[in-house]
């Protein structure tokens, strides 16, 4: 009996030992063998980078470099606003570029990164359209509470299916039908600002324009894509903004190692917010479904198209239908409103510093439309909007200096070639867009100046390597809402500039910060005065 018991004990301990060894081997593979293989492939091709440490990689050095950067924003005037703010944002990326060149490698724990700012390699990335170049899986996982598994996060065939579904809703022929909504929402903001200026001393009001433009953009995306007003979606946007802030940590962005076994208060907050946002969106969906069942008629907005596609799809399991709808609603709510509002806000800040460019835009409106009073009719004609070259140049230069997208991240989901470079599977390719947009070798010595005239002959003539201009991303994953966003920017800016002049408030503090997008940390406070016509 004792002998049999001893044999059982031996077998149990043997199984435990095998299990432990299996876990250790998997851990060594992920933490050592796989990273070593990736780094050796890049090293053999002459790509270098800062020395790494086992397990932690370059994380200690990154934290040390970041800690040396101190930003103390003060009230600003035109002479104290500097557009070279990028040293305060991911300073280690720029420091390593100075030391190792425009293509180098570094590590955050087991994750291996290849930083790319070389225009020729960026061109290859833009031309690479296979499904093997996708969103980093670890980054997508951390953003899941905010974006779900929608088109921004998805990879492979799942991404291709969602893009095929959603992209046509943002083609020009569809977007043209949204012009009236864009104008109506903007006019509501204009009336609010007119009220402020009437009450202000000498007809001048200090307005935090980014707050109002965010509400306005939310109203546009709500009405255009979901058939609802901003007042109905206000709670959704509010919770999404809080969720965005909660997820804006470098540890999530770079996939820093996390040895915690218990969730933090922030983790609990994220889970709660995610449930609340999902619940609100699901109510929006259910209300629409009930009205459809009762025979209600709806325009073919994005929500209606998503509902119909989910109902008829043969590629989607029925139990995933609700999640598919929620994920894409979250994606459109966040990406569709926030980015455009930020672009308009930063543009007005830049124009507040350059009153002569405000005058040029107003003069162009008179020339193209036949007068400011004809602007309404002009906005209904997309061909006339396309003739507003000065406004286009202003927008392009603003997106160069203050585009809402900061980091372009891709993961090689398979072995691939980029030009002459062999790219190993599993490498994360990073590009810091503001630095690329400020490369003096590409843009000239005036790279930190707001000079819309550099785009007078289009992007192709604005710089030496036009492929390095990428405010909407690159390749097959180019922003599907680019046409929608550009049209909205033109309508919003032409309307507000025809009604108001802008100058910088003495209370404005220039402090761009990274929180998934490029945000004004203390808001964009401008002095607003009505234009006499």
Automatic annotation (TrEMBL):
<dbReference type="GO" id="GO:0020037">
    <property type="term" value="F:heme binding"/>
</dbReference>
<dbReference type="GO" id="GO:0005506">
    <property type="term" value="F:iron ion binding"/>
</dbReference>
<protein>
    <recommendedName>
        <fullName>Cytochrome P450</fullName>
    </recommendedName>
</protein>
<keyword id="KW-1133">Transmembrane helix</keyword>
<dbReference type="GO" id="GO:0016020">
    <property type="term" value="C:membrane"/>
</dbReference>
<keyword id="KW-0812">Transmembrane</keyword>
<feature type="binding site" description="axial binding residue">
    <location>
        <position position="479"/>
    </location>
    <ligand>
        <name>heme</name>
    </ligand>
</feature>
<feature type="transmembrane region" description="Helical">
    <location>
        <begin position="6"/>
        <end position="28"/>
    </location>
</feature>
<keyword id="KW-0560">Oxidoreductase</keyword>
<dbReference type="GO" id="GO:0004497">
    <property type="term" value="F:monooxygenase activity"/>
</dbReference>
<keyword id="KW-0349">Heme</keyword>
<dbReference type="Pfam" id="PF00067">
    <property type="entry name" value="p450"/>
</dbReference>
<dbReference type="InterPro" id="IPR001128">
    <property type="entry name" value="Cyt_P450"/>
</dbReference>
<comment type="similarity">
    <text>Belongs to the cytochrome P450 family.</text>
</comment>
<keyword id="KW-0408">Iron</keyword>
<dbReference type="InterPro" id="IPR017972">
    <property type="entry name" value="Cyt_P450_CS"/>
</dbReference>
<dbReference type="InterPro" id="IPR050665">
    <property type="entry name" value="Cytochrome_P450_Monooxygen"/>
</dbReference>
<keyword id="KW-0479">Metal-binding</keyword>
<keyword id="KW-0503">Monooxygenase</keyword>
<dbReference type="InterPro" id="IPR036396">
    <property type="entry name" value="Cyt_P450_sf"/>
</dbReference>
<keyword id="KW-0472">Membrane</keyword>
<dbReference type="InterPro" id="IPR002401">
    <property type="entry name" value="Cyt_P450_E_grp-I"/>
</dbReference>
<dbReference type="GO" id="GO:0016705">
    <property type="term" value="F:oxidoreductase activity, acting on paired donors, with incorporation or reduction of molecular oxygen"/>
</dbReference>
